[in-house]
Write a structure and sequence with these properties.
mainly alpha; 2 domains; 4 helices; globular
């Protein structure tokens, strides 16, 4: 049940991010509304909380699980690149967006394989 909720939060979070990027290009004034400022933080907090609970329940929060550290590092990069995406214009926006999407895919692949070097 919790894993399903976590995956739902992942889907909502990534859809929200992509939607805000589209809005920032087409109708940036909408992003100044209170809903668009608060909702992403609530969604991301629920996503992070469910991930932490899953890690504790699965005893993955102990040492020897480098894949979890890799996901957290990639999450940090995703957050930074997402901020750049939403606050910049032109080529920088699209480079940061591509990087954020690559981080998202990497996090998902590591979650499935439990291997931070799945690509080797």
């Amino acid at each position: 049940m919790l894993k399903t909720l976590h995956l739902l939060f992942v889907l909502i979070a990534i859809s929200s991010f992509i939607g805000r990027v589209i809005l920032s290009e087409t109708q940036p004034h909408l992003l100044k509304q209170k809903l668009f400022k608060i909702a992403p933080h609530v969604i991301d907090s629920l996503l992070l909380l469910s991930g932490i609970i899953l890690a504790v329940q699965g005893s993955w929060a102990t040492t020897g699980h480098g894949w979890l550290a890799a996901k957290l590092l990639a999450l940090t990069a995703y957050i930074g690149l997402g901020a750049i995406t939403l606050h910049s214009r032109g080529n920088w926006r699209w480079l940061a967006f591509s990087g954020a999407m690559a981080c998202f895919v990497y996090i998902g692949m590591v979650a499935v394989t439990k291997n931070p070097f799945f690509f080797l």
